[in-house]
Amino acid sequence: MNIQRSLWFVATLVLGFGTAAMADDSAKAAARKKEIDSAAQTTLDKLGKDEPNAKELLSKSVGYAVFTVTKGGFLVSAGAGNGVVVDKASGNRTYMRMGMGGVGLGIGAQRYALVVIFENRERMEKFVAGGWDSSATAEAAAGKEGKAARTTFYDGVAYYQITEKGLMAHADITGTKFWVNEDLR
User: Fold this and answer.
1) Span 90-130, pLDDT tens digits
2) Which residue from 137, 141, 72, 138 is spatially nearest to 108, judged by alpha carbons?
3) Strand locations in 30-92 (E)
């Protein structure tokens, strides 16, 4: 009988610690989502203020994604970021990660916000499904005011890049992958 009580006691402790750990993970995930949402709203507010065309595109869109990205390189470039995709019709939010890597002529580091505006549901759903978006880029960004922007949809998508800080000059071929952040589902 004593062994049975001991086993129940151990099982109760294990379940209690497991439940506490899950609650802690849930609280961390909620805090991270709040942090990502806040950064996204700050970016959208700045974009709307600085780029009147972006406001118009956002009003016409089915949804948008906002990522905070850090990128650096010296001949080889790499970057990573976190963000959220918002479906305007349902209000659903999908938290995602991104990673990029490339080769080319470049040196430096920068942190920037990437805003992707979706003209139609098909493009937004394809984006959320993940995959590679390989592209050749040539850019120079310096300080807080560096930015590159599009003023119309191209193939159902518009991109805006807002540099937060840093200095980077490069020309490279970069592959970018976006995927759902399973930790924030």
Assistant:
1) 999 999 999 888 877 667 788 888 899 999 999 999 999 98
2) 72
3) 63-87
- Burial readout 172-182 (b: 16 or more C-beta within 10 A, e: otherwise): bebebebeebe
Q: Which of 83, 55, 77 has its CA nearest to residue 141? A: 77
Close Cβ partners of 97 (under 8 Å, ≥ 6 residues apart): 80, 81, 82, 83, 178, 179, 180, 181
Helix (H, G, I), strand (E, B) or coil at 2: helix
* Cα–Cα distance for residue pair 46/82, rounded to 1 Å: 18
Which pair of tokens denotes residue 98? Answer: 């991104």
Is-contact 113 69, C-beta < 8 A? Answer: yes
CA distances from 92 to 13, 80, 85, 86, 161 (A): 37, 23, 8, 6, 23
pTM of the entire structure? 0.75
- Average pLDDT of the chain is 77
3-state secondary structure of 87: strand
Q: Where do the domains of the chain lie?
A: 44-184
Give the pLDDT score at 5.
52
The two structure tokens encoding residue 183: 């930790």
Dist CA 111 CA 147 (whole Å): 12
Give the CA angle between residues 82, 154, 137 to the nearest 5°. 60
